[in-house]
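User: Modeling request: complex.
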Amino acid sequence: MQSRLLKIIEEAERGRPMTVEEMTDIFATDDEDIRRTLFEVADRVRHKSVGDAVYLRALVEFSNHCRNNCSYCGIRPGNRQVKRYRMEPEEIVEALAVAHRLNIGTAVLQSGEDLWYDTGKIVWMIREIKERYGMAVTLSLGERSYEDYQAFREAGADRYLLRHETSDPELYAGLHPGMTLQHRLCCLRQLKELGYQTGSGNMVGLPGQTCLSLAHDVAFIRDMGLEMAGIGPFIPAEDTPLSNAECGTLDVVLREVALLRLNSPLLMIPATTAVATLDSQGRQQALQCGANILMPNFTPLRYRERYRLYAGKACSNESFEQCIGSMFGMLSSIGRSVGKGPGHSLKGSGVYI
Ligand code: 5AD
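Assistant: Request completed. Predicted assembly structure:
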């Protein structure tokens, strides 16, 4: 078993995609040598395919209103303890000025699914961010109509993040009342068709999730030809139906990050806030086994506390300067540089590092 899995990892380094069965075995193994080799090889593939630069994405979490009642999420409407907020469009654009001054090349606009922000408001923000700062714009607004996705794209949005959360349709249905995995995948296909650099991703350690289902998550991201994927541990949120469930583990998150890097060498993979919340070394470990993106939080401090998707969310009372300062320090300690420019996906660009 050991030599078989080591051989599979070596072959992946040379470009052979893994089967779902092989990935399931790699998720499940308790062999320390395999785990270490997996992380080392993924780090090497990351170095060869996307280089040593880590790109920063300035995140603004602009509204915690949401129409979906996902059972894991701290800002679900069923959670009456949450104080709701909506930032004004001008305030959102203004919050990015400091990120622009710090030379960050991408703005990420994220919120609950909040239709108060109609087509016109979102289009206005995209245009303003482009005009004032010339930044790349990533949207993370959940499921919207095709017409909305099209209007946002025409206004200049470059990328869209929409996690599939889990590729297991039954698990998905159980966690997302009234929603289907099928519809989520339909949105992802529309985004791709409209020419967005498209990102998805899943949580790790959801109650009932298996190694097989995680292997399917990796295969799904690869086979859809996505440009970006965010992976984080499930962390129970207070006042939700899953508040007493077990957390996902750092180890399994790192295995998925590494498998993604091996199977989709050019993928943009963030070291997520959820990973940092789980373990103070989590972000840097993720960067050392495949990840190449960081997403510092530029949500004004007065709202930060209220965008609590899960308990103990990292950086929730750190200023931008503190957050950026500690990221720069961490990057130089692991020999990585800060990416310059927008940091677009290299897929299809013909650029190989
Ligand atoms: N634990 C970890 N991640 C969560 N998210 C939402 N709730 C939780 C939680 N309890 C993630 C989802 C969502 C992203 C914005 O945050 O994957 O897509």
